[in-house]
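Lab notebook, design round three. We kept the backbone fixed and only want residue identities now. Task for the bench partner: fill in a sequence for the structure below.
Input structure tokens:
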């Protein structure tokens, strides 16, 4: 797989720059290409999903695709940026940073639902994440940046919910929760229902059990 990707310019996380569109028409064309790439990678995987297949799915010429994306690597990079922004927006909505007193079971159910639905909202999400990580020999820089964004938001939530918690402790628990949730949901995607739903429910229960005593240690002030 690494050899196939490398042929299209994707080796160690180093990407050639994408040409940014300056007109609305160009922006729409870029979005159409990325939508097509998501569908192709979701159906065929990153290895089999060629730029020709992406251009055909987008209803565009290969030359038009290369005008904005010089190779598959540039498309993958643009998709990972799209995924990071989408995940951040989902988490900002579900974490309810302006409403920090949401019960933990409700909070984690919604948060894990956001993680779990990423592959439904973005069909190529898991395929792209795995391909970029594999080509990097571990976690790609983009994957690490995505995790850092998520960890920052969870840390903000913990500090709001648990006044008095040390920042270092909040950082540690945020990192643990993001890594565990991502790993378990990645596994859940490889099994079918009803086992997938059972794993997600067990993950919610595990997160609630982990953070309940922590909240008791750092009780929140009584709401006005």
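Proposed sequence:
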């Amino acid at each position: 797989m690494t050899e196939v990707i490398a042929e299209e310019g994707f080796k160690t996380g180093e990407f050639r720059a994408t040409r940014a569109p300056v007109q609305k028409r160009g922006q729409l064309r870029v979005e159409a290409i990325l939508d097509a790439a998501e569908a192709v990678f979701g159906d065929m995987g990153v290895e089999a999903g060629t730029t020709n297949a992406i251009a055909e799915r987008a209803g565009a010429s290969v030359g038009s695709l290369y005008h904005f994306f010089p190779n598959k690597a540039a498309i993958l990079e643009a998709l990972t940026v799209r995924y990071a922004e989408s995940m951040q927006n989902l988490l900002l909505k579900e974490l309810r940073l302006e409403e920090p007193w949401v019960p933990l079971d409700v909070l984690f159910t919604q948060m894990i639902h956001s993680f779990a639905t990423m592959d439904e909202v973005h069909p190529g999400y898991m395929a792209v994440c795995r391909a970029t990580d594999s080509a990097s020999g571990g976690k790609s820089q983009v994957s690490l940046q995505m995790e850092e964004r998520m960890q920052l938001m969870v840390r903000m939530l913990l500090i709001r919910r648990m006044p008095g918690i040390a920042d270092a402790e909040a950082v540690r628990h945020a990192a643990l929760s993001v890594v565990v949730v991502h790993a378990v949901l990645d596994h859940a995607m490889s099994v079918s229902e009803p086992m997938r739903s059972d794993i997600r429910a067990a993950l919610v229960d595990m997160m609630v059990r982990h953070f309940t005593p922590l909240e008791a240690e750092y009780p929140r002030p009584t709401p006005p």
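Keep this in mind before ordering anything: The chain has two domains: 2-68, 79-217.
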